[in-house]
Every structure is written in structure tokens, then in C-alpha cells.
């Protein structure tokens, strides 16, 4: 019988961040996984990042999480998306070497102080008077912990579908977790069912690459982590192919054996990453769909045809693949499949990701109805931090919607709940212009350090960056150019407009065509700074108008956010609220009026009624 | 709904109308009705939404008070979405008040003004625009005002605002799709965005412009009567009002302060203000009165400049004209029942519309009303259009329009899409102050239904 502070169940992308976060914060942590060889395994596409998701990865990094570093170490293609758009929606996406990614993470965990790792199938949660005590495994082992964090991904009653065939599995090749799901139900949790899917994998020797359109990495590759200075990995391209009418016809002939269209699959699927059969049925008029052929790693010839997730029968899978130009002779190494799994409705959680039902039980990742490695990692990190803070009897660490995508993610989950797998998009963040990839460290590291979740080295680095930015900004504000002949000649030489009145360098930099680099010859007092600093400075000045307006908006919203609702407040006291609204508020127990206002069905009028009531009673 | 108390009120306007309705809303509605109302045919409960004929009886004294119709309406299919009971009585106000006090004795409380509507709004029965409209209808006085308000209720404004919202949302959806899915083949066209946004802006502008008309219908126009002393201004006002409101004497300077009252012309409310005769003041009171007139001139919608047809055009008349020139003015030549002395061409040359009247003999007053109406409402009033009458709506629309203008500016300056999106989100936010918010989920739903997305 072993005793731990924190027990983490599941070593996927959520579980790894959870276990690392809590053990980094000095609490004795146990990580249990069904398969030690599949730690941080990329069950779906071998890539990290993309719009909205990359923001999460940068934020995980800013809080000392591992995902960005692990991606930098094992990435084989680096791209920045949306380079032609503004800084807030630029986004990093990295193809990772699937096996190296998993191995490196495993090794990272093994070297982590305070962290113990064991292979086990957890069958049961041990609970006493609504407080978690530990877990029991299939082999009868009992592990006791003050906190338990479930990061079980798609493993809860996982059911794989290929055509009309189906079998129980956590993912292809792994045991499912059946007992745990029942254990949660018995404890009174409301459980739902979701569906996701993945693509078949292809044998690279049977792909005619000469017919494919390559897509190369950015050079030089831009790292994910704020700590990584250079990427020196070997880089390889992805390839683009297109489906055609023949592909679509073949898919249609298989629909009568599709578990999706014959009603075998009951769970709700992901709209943002639909199966190819779904795309063909829903968008009949589209003549082709783009498919990215992504390498699974440097040590393998397997490829991942991104965009072809399917649960059609195997014979249709191979036929439709072979109808695509360049894949005429392709062989499948592993079939694509759909998987249904149980999830826990996340409105049963506090913003710390602790369950409302069982004290010290936390849930993170796909079990909360999300999809994606990044969404999982972000929740894992926050659950790990909050579990550790609870043991240290410190206050909760909750990040606002105005501070980070992590805040948007968790607030959406616990406030609005999910009815389909939840994926992050930049459009979910109402304060998008403030929440950029490039300033994740400036937004979060200091906060993380204050609660002991971030190392001193990272903190110092960020603080130096911060003060350097301030310093350069103040220099730019203080240096004034007068409209002398020499100045205007200089300006002309650097292709800038002449000036008639004195201007500060800050004002000059406001012009869209002017960069930091252009200013150096103009002002000898201004020493050249690192690119990173220059970027922040330019951004601060050029987008100041928007940034200020966005901050104004945040202020408006924060006034509701800061109005806290007492934990055991009885909404029936408030006159004028409908039964439906009372029921919703009672169930979700929002921590603030701001959160209350975001619950679907809670009308602005209801919020006003609450506000009036609280004011009358002197609660706020 | 245990937390809600039961309210009651006389729901028909005071006065000797045909029927007076007393309304009770809340959890006690049924039990109170049962106690105060007795009818022959009835089981243990009233059938919902069915009228019963019976008597209101004082439960304490068993004394019958009035023969009435009563109806009980079970929630949620009621105006407030609560249980409602209504008592329709034919008796006068005194009896209605007696009935009301019985109801209060049985546990209801008197509703605050607009509280039924407030409950309907809070319970999600009606939206804010509708709630405001109901309050307007209660207070509306004239026919056109009523029409305007009813249109609100039918939701023409809601419909218009919703179509504005749809346009903004559709554009935002395409822009968001371009931002969040850079590797997808999204078909979205900047030219279409610009043309939709411009059209939407123009629609909003028309609504904003309608505020003046809408406001006029709701609050009426202000009309100021000016003229030198004793040309018959007060008589004119009285004739228009058909009552002796202003004191009329042959002594110049009788009207020292402003006298005002309301008349209705074809459903339009006109507040007519009679003023002190504008002449060299003889004392402080008169001086103050005249100064007030001068201050008022720039504020009103229309000026009626009264001249004495039986006297020559004087320097004083000309002096007055200097004060009002440039304002929207109708000239009235009064006292045409007397021999004519005034030089009409002096007034004609000022390009003013002239109406000849005799306030005393009731000549030309209908023509004057016609001229006033046309002047204020323009020929062929645009009352078929949707009007906004609420300043909150106008302000939100102005902010919405400004955000759209900035979004158009972003597109024109070729700024990155997230800034256009920022402005459009703000536009939707301001529009949401009228209709309720557009949430991120709504945008995402539309992206997914419109574009085939997903790798």
C-alpha cells in the first residue's frame, strides 16, 4: 500500500502535464497508465499547434509546462500560419515525430523529481464521505492519494468502429477502461458519450511522391517554446493531394456499411474535424477536398493522410485512397477508425477542474469533452497546479478569459458545458487581440511564478524581457526628431515620408511602413535590440489603438467578473427569476456574475435581477 | 416560483370606460380568485383560459359586490408566464377599487407601474423591444402613436434589427473562417463584404434618421406662437384648443408668461405654446416673459407668426421677424373679419406660407391645421416605414454604425482581418444592446454549416 499526494490516471497529453506540474510544485505524485510504451502518444495526427491551439501550447510553456519543449525537441516540420495576417492570429504548427515525441516525454517524466510512474488499469475510485481517498486497480492494488486527477482521454468505455465491426479498446492497440466509467456513474456523475475518429495510415513505399505537391517547413524554423533558442532537427516536407468525384462516389457506395450512417455510432462527433464521409454527404457540391500527407516520423515510412478520418469499412478505405492522384498503388498499414467514449459533463466541475461532487477529485482533458492534444495539455497543467495548491492549502489558480486561451477554454467548459467535442479557435476568445502567441510569457509567467508553478530561471528571463521592452518604449518616447534638412534627408533615404513638425520616434514607428530597424540610423542613442524585443515594441506601438480599446472592453467586463457570488447562494431568494434560470444557476454554481452571464439561457435581464438583489442585500 | 409574490392592479386606464379589468399575477392568483369569486358552474379548479360569469363577494361578510366575468390562466401560457387571474367588471372605479382591496387582503400586493411587463420580460416572455413597446402602448395617446407602437409589437423593428444582425454576422462568419482556417479553401469575397456592410450601414442610417419622426409621433412637436402684442395670439390658441385656456382681453400684454396646451391633428401631437407679445416691455415681468420667448425660439419645431390683418405692417413686426427668420415658420394673418390694412406682399416677399384666419369668427382654422400638419410631417408621411422612438435604440444604432464604418475603413486600408473582425464584433455587441448578444458559439455554428472545414 502506497501513499501519494497526487495520483494521476492516464499518461496522455493531459496526464503528462498534470503529473509534471504537481511534482514540479513539490508534491509526491504517482502517474498510472494502461501502457507505459504509449506515454504522450499521438493517437491521431502527428502535429502540435494550429489556430487557437498553438496559443494554448505557448501558454502551457509560459507556465513551465512541457508540451512546447517536447515539440521543439522532436519536431520535423515547423510552420507559422497566417503570416499575412496580424500578430494576434499568427499561429505555430509543428509536425512532430510521433515515436520520438512519446519517448522523449516518457524520459522527461522518468527524470522528474517527486514523480513515480506505474503501469496499471484503474478500476475503481476510493471515496469516503465525498472526499477522494485513492484508486484500486484491476489487479487489486490500492493506491492512496490526497488528490486524484483523471486524464483518461478516449479510454472510458472506448468502442472502436471500422465499418459495421466494433470492439472495445482505449485506442487501437490498447485496453479500454470499463470499470472506471462505472465507478464515476455510481458516484453520481452525469456521463455522456462522444465520438471521434482517425485516418488510416499509409505505407510510404506505395505513395508516388513525384505526383504530390510538397509543402516545406519554414526556414529558419521558429521554435514553440520561449526557452528554445534554435531548432536543429532534420526537417521533412508534408504533401498535398486532393480527393475527386470518383473518391466521393466510392465513399457513397460504402455509406450503407458506415457505422455513422447506419446509426451504430450513438456518440456526437466533432464538427470541426469531420470524417471524410461526413464532408462528402454534407457538402455535396464540393468537387474536391484537400488532404495533407504527413510523415509520422523520421524512423518510419508510415504517413498520415490528414483530412481522411473515416470509419468506413476497410475495403472502401483502400478503394477511396487509390482513387486519389499519387496514391493509386497505396497500401494501408493501419485502418482508419471511429471511436466512441464516455465523458463527464464538465459543468460538474469548478473552474479549478475539481469536481463539485467529490472533493479533491479533478478531471482534465478529453474526459471533459474536449478534443486535441493542446486542449488536453492545458487542462492537465491547470488541474495539476490546482491539486498541488490545494495540498499546500493555497488559493486556487484561475485564469481569466481576458488573460489566456486557457481561461477561455476552462470557462467555456465549466460554464457552458459541451454537447460535442470542444476544440479551441481564436474566434472563441473575445479578447483575441490581447491574447497573442508572442506575449503568452508576458501574460502568464509572472502569475505562474507567484504561485510556485514556474521556475526561477524562466521567471527571470521573462522579467528581463519585460523591462527591456519598457526601456526601449520609453527611449522611443523620449527621442524627438526635428524637421531639419538632415533629418528629412535621412528619412527620404530610408524611404520614409518627410516630416514638417517635430515627432518622437514612437510617433514615427506608428506609421505602417516604418520598422524598428529603420530608426537605428536616425537615433544613435537607440541601441539595436534583439528581434524579439523589437517585435514586442513595434506591436505595442502600432496596434496601441486596438489594444487600448480591447483593454477598455476587458474593464467593462471585469466589473461583472469581480462581483463574486457566495458559494452556497440560494437563487430562489431572487425575485423575478424563472424556474429555468434558477435551475441552471443552481446546477452550474457560477463563481461570479460574469460567469453567470455566460451560462446559456441566463438572460441579461436575469443578470440585472441578480445584480439588483445582491446590491440590495449588500452582498456586492 | 415560490420566491415570487403575487401582484395585482387595475389594468385598464382610469376613467369611465366600458369594462375595467383587474389583473392578478403570481402563485396565489388561483387561490385568491377562488376566495373572492363565486360562480354556479365550477369544479375544484377553474379551467384555464375559460371565462366564468359570477359574483365578486367579500369572503368576510359574504356581501356581493359586483357581477363580473372572471378568467384564470395557467402558467406558462400567460402574459407574465405566471398564473394569472383577471376580473372583468362593468362597474366604476370605486367598485373596482373595492375589489382590488379584497384581493390585496387575500395576499396579493399592488403592482408597481409596468411590473406585469417587467415580469413578462424577466421570465423571457418578451424581448426588451417588446417590453418597451408595451409600456409605450400604455402611455400612448394618439392614433398614429398607437400604430407605431403596435408595429413594434409585431416586431418590424425586431425584424429589421435581426436582418442587420444577420448581415453583420454572415460577414463576420466568413472573416472568422478565413482567420481560423487558413489552410482550408474558404470562398469569401472582400467585395461582397464591402457591399453588404455598406448596405447595412445605410439601413441603419435610415433607422437613425427615423428617430426624429418616431420621436415626434411619440412626444409630439412643439409649436410656438409669436407676434407683437394684441394681434390675437391667445385667441388663436383658444380657437385651436376650442377652450378658453388663455385669458383674452383687449389689453395688450395680457399674456405675460407662456401658456401651452396640446392639440392633435390627424393623430399627431402638437404642443402649442402661446407667448407674451413681443414688444418693448413695460415692466420686469413682461421683460422676463419676452426673454423667455427669445430663448425658446431656437428649440421648437415650428413657429406660428401672427400678424394683425387689420393694421399696417409695423417696425415691431419686422423686429420680430428678425428673431425668427431662418426658422420653420408659418405666417398667420389674423383678424381678417375686420377691414384689411396689412400689406400682404411684405410677408409674401419673405417666402413664408401664409394662412388667413379670424380666430374670433373661427375662419381659416382648418386650413391652418392642414398647413401645420403638412409642414411638420411633410407630404405623404413615411409612416409605412419602421420607426425608432427610443433614444436607447438610437444610441446603440449610432454606435453600431460607427463600428461598421471603422470595419469598412479596415478593409479599405487593407488591415489584417482580425481588426475588421474586431470592429464587426463590436458592431454586433452594440446591436446586442437592443436584441441580445451574439455569442461565439453562434459564429462557430455558422462557420461549420457554411464551410466544409476539417483536416
Count of helix runs of chain A:
20
What distance lies between the first and last C-alpha atoms of chain A, to the nearest angstrom?
48 Å
SSE order of chain B: EEHEEEEHEHHHHHEHEEHEHEHEHHHH
Derived structural class of chain B = alpha/beta
Q: Which shape of chain B, going by the Cα principal axes?
A: flat
Fraction of helical residues of chain A? 25-40%
| Widest sheet, order of strands of chain B | 3-4-5-6-2-1-7
**How much is the average pLDDT of chain A?**
92
CATH first level of the domain at 201-338 in chain A: which class?
Answer: Mainly Beta
The CATH topology annotation of the largest domain in chain B reads as Rossmann fold
Unreliable segments of chain A (pLDDT under 50, ≥5 consecutive)? none
CATH architectural name of the largest domain in chain B = 3-Layer(aba) Sandwich
Mean pLDDT of chain B: 80
- Structural class by SSE content of chain A: alpha+beta
Number of helices of chain B: 15
Helical coverage of chain B, percent range: 40-55%
CATH architecture name of the domain at 201-338 in chain A: Beta Barrel
Topology (SSEs and partners):
The complex is a heterodimer of chains A (620) and B (455).
Chain A: E1 2-9, H1 13-24, E2 29-33, E3 47-49, H2 53-62, H3 67-74, E4 75-81, E5 91-96, H4 98-110, E6 115-119, E7 122-128, E8 131-137, E9 142-150, E10 159-162, E11 165-168, H5 179-186, E12 191-198, E13 201-203, E14 213-215, E15 238-242, H6 245-253, H7 276-282, E16 290-295, E17 302-306, H8 314-322, E18 332-334, E19 337-344, E20 361-363, H9 373-391, H10 405-416, H11 440-450, H12 456-478, E21 480-481, H13 485-493, E22 503-504, H14 505-510, H15 516-519, H16 531-542, H17 544-561, H18 579-588, H19 593-598, H20 604-617
Parallel strand pairs in A: 1-2, 1-9, 2-6, 9-20
Antiparallel strand pairs in A: 3-5, 4-5, 7-8, 8-9, 10-11, 10-19, 12-19, 13-17, 13-18, 14-15, 15-16, 16-17, 21-22
Chain B: E1 7-10, E2 20-25, H1 29-36, E3 37-38, E4 50-57, E5 64-73, E6 84-89, H2 93-105, E7 109-110, H3 115-122, H4 128-139, H5 143-154, H6 156-180, H7 190-219, E8 221-226, H8 233-241, E9 259-265, E10 268-274, H9 284-296, E11 302-308, H10 315-324, E12 329-334, H11 344-348, E13 353-356, H12 365-377, H13 391-412, H14 417-435, H15 440-450
Parallel strand pairs in B: 1-7, 8-10, 8-11, 11-12, 12-13
Antiparallel strand pairs in B: 1-2, 2-6, 3-4, 4-5, 5-6, 9-10
Helix pairs in contact in B: 3-4, 4-5, 6-7, 6-14, 6-15, 7-13, 13-14
Amino acid at each position: 500500500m502506497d501513499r501519494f499526494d497526487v495520483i494521476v490516471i492516464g499518461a496522455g497529453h493531459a496526464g503528462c502535464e498534470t503529473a509534471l506540474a504537481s511534482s514540479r510544485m513539490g508534491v509526491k505524485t504517482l502517474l498510472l497508465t494502461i501502457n507505459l510504451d504509449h506515454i504522450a502518444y499521438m493517437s491521431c495526427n502527428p502535429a502540435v499547434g494550429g489556430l487557437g491551439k498553438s496559443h494554448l501550447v505557448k501558454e502551457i510553456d509560459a507556465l513551465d509546462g512541457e508540451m512546447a519543449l517536447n515539440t521543439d525537441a522532436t519536431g520535423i516540420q515547423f510552420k507559422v500560419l497566417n503570416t499575412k495576417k496580424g500578430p494576434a492570429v499568427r499561429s505555430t504548427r509543428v509536425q512532430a515525430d510521433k515515436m520520438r515525441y512519446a519517448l522523449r516525454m516518457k524520459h522527461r517524466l522518468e527524470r522528474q523529481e517527486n514523480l513515480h510512474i506505474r503501469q496499471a488499469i484503474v478500476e475503481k475510485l476510493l471515496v469516503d464521505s465525498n472526499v477522494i481517498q485513492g484508486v484500486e486497480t484491476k489487479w487489486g492494488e490500492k493506491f492512496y492519494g490526497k488528490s486524484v486527477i483523471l486524464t483518461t482521454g478516449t479510454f472510458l468505455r472506448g468502442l472502436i468502429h471500422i465499418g459495421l465491426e466494433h470492439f472495445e479498446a482505449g485506442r487501437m492497440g490498447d485496453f479500454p477502461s470499463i470499470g472506471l466509467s462505472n465507478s464515476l456513474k455510481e458516484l453520481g456523475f452525469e456521463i455522456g458519450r462522444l465520438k471521434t475518429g482517425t485516418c488510416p495510415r499509409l505505407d510510404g513505399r506505395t505513395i508516388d511522391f513525384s505526383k504530390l505537391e510538397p509543402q516545406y517547413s519554414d526556414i529558419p524554423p521558429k521554435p514553440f517554446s520561449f526557452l528554445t533558442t534554435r531548432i536543429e532537427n532534420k526537417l521533412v516536407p508534408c504533401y498535398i493531394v486532393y480527393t475527386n468525384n470518383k473518391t466521393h462516389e466510392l465513399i457513397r457506395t460504402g455509406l450503407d456499411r458506415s457505422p455513422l450512417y447506419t446509426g451504430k455510432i450513438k456518440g456526437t462527433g466533432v464538427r470541426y474535424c469531420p470524417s471524410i464521409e461526413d464532408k462528402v454527404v454534407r457538402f455535396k457540391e464540393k468537387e474536391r477536398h484537400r488532404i495533407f500527407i504527413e510523415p509520422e516520423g523520421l524512423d518510419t515510412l508510415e504517413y498520415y493522410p490528414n483530412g481522411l478520418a473515416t470509419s468506413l469499412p476497410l475495403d472502401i478505405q483502400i478503394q477511396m485512397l487509390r482513387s486519389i492522384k499519387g496514391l493509386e498503388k497505396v497500401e494501408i498499414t493501419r485502418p482508419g477508425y471511429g471511436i466512441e467514449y464516455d465523458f463527464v459533463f464538465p459543468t460538474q466541475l469548478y473552474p479549478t477542474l475539481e469536481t463539485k461532487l467529490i472533493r479533491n477529485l479533478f478531471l482534465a482533458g478529453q474526459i471533459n469533452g474536449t478534443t486535441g492534444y493542446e486542449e488536453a495539455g492545458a487542462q492537465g497543467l491547470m488541474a495539476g497546479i490546482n491539486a498541488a495548491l490545494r495540498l499546500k492549502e493555497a488559493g486556487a489558480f484561475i485564469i481569466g478569459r481576458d488573460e489566456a486561451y486557457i481561461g477561455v477554454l476552462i470557462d467555456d467548459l465549466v460554464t457552458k458545458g459541451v454537447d460535442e467535442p470542444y476544440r479551441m479557435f481564436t474566434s472563441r476568445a473575445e479578447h483575441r487581440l490581447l491574447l497573442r502567441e508572442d506575449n503568452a510569457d508576458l501574460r502568464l509567467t509572472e502569475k505562474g511564478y507567484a504561485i510556485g508553478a514556474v521556475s526561477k530561471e524562466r521567471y527571470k528571463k521573462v522579467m528581463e524581457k519585460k523591462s527591456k521592452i519598457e526601456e526601449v518604449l520609453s527611449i522611443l518616447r523620449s527621442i524627438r526628431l526635428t524637421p531639419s534638412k538632415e533629418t528629412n534627408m535621412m528619412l527620404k533615404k530610408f524611404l520614409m515620408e518627410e516630416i514638417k513638425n517635430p515627432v518622437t520616434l514612437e510617433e514615427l514607428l506608428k506609421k505602417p511602413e516604418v520598422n524598428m530597424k529603420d530608426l537605428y540610423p536616425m537615433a544613435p542613442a537607440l541601441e539595436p535590440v534583439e528581434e524579439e524585443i523589437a517585435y514586442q515594441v513595434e506591436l505595442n506601438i502600432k496596434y496601441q489603438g486596438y489594444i487600448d480599446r480591447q483593454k477598455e472592453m476587458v474593464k467593462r467586463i471585469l466589473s461583472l467578473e469581480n462581483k463574486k457570488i457566495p458559494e452556497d447562494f440560494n437563487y430562489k431568494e431572487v425575485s423575478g427569476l424563472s424556474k429555468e434560470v434558477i435551475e441552471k444557476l443552481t446546477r452550474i454554481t457560477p463563481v461570479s456574475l460574469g460567469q453567470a452571464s455566460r451560462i446559456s439561457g441566463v438572460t441579461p435581464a436575469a443578470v440585472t435581477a441578480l445584480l439588483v438583489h445582491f446590491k440590495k442585500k449588500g452582498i456586492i | 416560483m415560490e420566491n415570487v409574490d403575487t401582484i395585482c392592479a387595475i389594468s385598464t386606464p382610469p376613467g369611465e370606460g366600458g369594462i375595467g379589468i383587474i389583473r392578478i399575477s403570481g402563485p396565489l392568483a388561483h387561490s385568491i380568485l377562488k376566495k373572492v369569486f363565486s360562480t354556479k358552474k365550477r369544479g375544484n379548479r377553474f379551467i384555464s383560459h375559460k371565462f366564468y360569469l359570477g359574483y365578486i363577494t367579500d369572503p368576510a361578510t359574504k356581501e356581493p359586490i359586483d357581477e363580473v366575468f372572471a378568467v384564470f390562466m395557467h402558467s406558462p401560457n400567460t402574459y407574465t408566464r405566471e398564473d394569472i387571474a383577471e376580473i372583468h367588471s362593468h362597474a366604476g372605479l370605486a367598485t373596482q377599487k373595492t375589489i382590488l382591496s379584497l384581493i390585496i387582503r387575500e395576499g396579493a400586493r399592488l403592482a408597481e407601474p409596468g411590473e406585469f411587463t417587467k415580469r413578462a420580460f424577466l421570465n423571457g416572455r418578451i424581448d426588451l423591444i417588446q417590453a418597451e413597446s408595451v409600456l409605450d402602448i400604455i402611455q400612448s395617446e394618439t392614433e398614429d402613436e398607437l400604430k407605431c407602437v403596435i408595429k413594434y409589437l409585431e416586431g418590424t423593428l425586431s425584424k429589421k434589427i435581426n436582418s442587420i444582425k444577420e448581415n453583420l454576422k454572415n460577414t463576420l462568419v466568413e472573416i472568422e473562417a478565413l482567420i481560423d482556417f487558413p489552410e482550408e479553401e474558404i470562398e469569401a469575397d472582400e467585395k461582397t463584404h464591402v457591399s453588404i456592410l455598406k448596405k447595412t450601414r445605410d439601413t441603419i442610417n435610415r433607422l437613425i434618421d427615423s428617430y426624429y419622426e418616431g420621436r415626434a409621433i411619440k412626444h409630439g412637436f412643439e409649436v410656438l406662437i409669436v407676434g407683437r402684442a394684441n394681434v390675437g395670439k391667445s385667441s388663436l390658441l383658444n380657437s385651436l384648443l376650442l377652450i378658453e385656456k388663455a385669458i383674452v382681453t383687449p389689453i395688450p400684454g395680457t399674456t405675460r408668461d407662456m401658456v401651452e396646451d396640446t392639440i392633435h391633428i390627424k393623430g399627431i401631437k402638437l404642443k402649442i405654446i402661446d407667448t407674451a407679445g413681443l414688444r418693448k416691455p413695460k415692466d420686469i415681468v413682461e421683460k422676463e416673459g419676452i426673454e423667455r420667448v427669445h430663448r425658446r425660439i431656437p428649440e421648437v419645431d415650428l413657429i406660428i407668426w401672427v400678424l394683425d390683418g387689420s393694421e399696417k405692417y409695423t417696425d415691431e413686426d419686422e423686429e420680430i421677424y428678425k428673431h425668427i427668420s431662418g426658422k420653420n415658420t408659418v405666417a398667420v394673418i389674423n383678424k381678417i373679419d375686420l377691414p384689411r390694412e396689412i400689406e400682404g406682399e411684405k410677408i409674401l416677399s419673405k417666402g413664408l406660407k401664409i394662412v388667413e384666419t379670424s380666430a374670433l369668427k373661427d375662419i381659416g382654422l382648418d386650413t391652418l391645421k392642414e398647413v401645420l400638419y403638412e409642414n411638420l410631417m411633410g407630404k405623404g408621411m413615411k409612416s409605412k416605414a419602421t420607426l425608432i422612438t427610443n433614444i436607447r435604440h438610437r444610441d446603440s444604432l449610432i454606435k453600431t454604425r460607427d463600428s461598421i464604418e471603422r470595419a469598412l475603413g479596415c478593409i479599405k486600408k487593407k488591415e489584417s482581418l482580425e481588426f475588421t473582425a474586431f470592429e464587426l464584433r463590436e458592431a454586433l455587441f452594440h446591436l446586442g444592446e437592443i436584441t441580445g448578444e451574439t455569442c461565439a458559439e453562434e459564429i462557430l455554428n455558422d462557420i461549420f454549416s457554411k464551410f466544409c472545414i476539417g483536416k
